[in-house]
Design a protein that fits this description.
- The chain has a single domain, classed as Gcn5-related N-acetyltransferase (GNAT) (Aminopeptidase), CATH 3.40.630.
- It is built from 4 helices and 9 strands; from the N terminus they run βααβββαβαββββ.
- The strands form 2 sheets. Strands 1-2-3-4-5-9-6 form a 7-stranded mixed beta sheet, sandwiched between helices. A two-stranded antiparallel sheet has the order 7-8.
- It starts with a strand and ends with a strand.
Length: 170
């Protein structure tokens, strides 16, 4: 169900469109993933093509995907581009599940896979940011991911700020 995504396969263009749809739907359903409303499908596509794709190509970013019936319904990113004195850590970013696929264990499977991927990459600590009280917070806590220092200005999709940050030794 979970696999690492590669940008050079025969489905790459189609996959980028599906990534855009998942991000767009998640943001409009309230996901706190660094985007604010208004947020268009074109904005989503631009993010995937200009921010994510170059990192996947140079291996500074790994994208994992979840498919159900051959459709991408979830994704998470592992950012490996860290300073030389922090090669033990990686950042988990953009855990996204399409609203139509929620409550099926997709997010949990993606998080378990991203932890395993981090270990394979030699990382011993993952960090992630989430709003305190966000819908994903119970998932992170159930996986043993505990809060770290709080960032006072994580912005939700309506431009309101809340605190939140998590760190998890592997």
């Amino acid at each position: 169900m979970i696999e690492e995504w590669g940008p050079d396969g025969p489905r790459a263009e189609h996959d980028l469109q599906e990534f855009s749809a998942v991000l767009h739907a998640a943001v409009h359903a309230g996901a706190s993933v660094s985007f604010v409303l208004p947020f268009s499908l074109d904005d989503s596509g631009t993010f995937w093509r200009t921010k994510v794709l170059p990192g996947v190509r140079d291996r500074s970013r790994i994208v994992l995907i979840a498919r159900i019936e051959d459709e991408i319904v979830g994704t998470v990113q592992l950012i490996l581009d860290t300073p030389a004195n922090q090669r033990h850590r990686a950042e988990v970013a953009k855990l996204l599940v399409h609203p139509k696929a929620r409550r099926r264990g997709v997010a949990r499977a993606l998080m378990q896979a991203v932890e395993n991927t981090a270990r394979k990459e030699g990382r011993t600590l993952i960090t992630l940011d989430t709003r305190t009280g966000d819908l994903a917070e119970p998932l992170y806590l159930s996986l043993g991911i505990r809060g770290g220092r709080n960032h006072p200005a994580i912005c939700d999709r309506s431009r309101r700020t809340k605190a939140g940050s998590h760190h998890h030794p592997l």
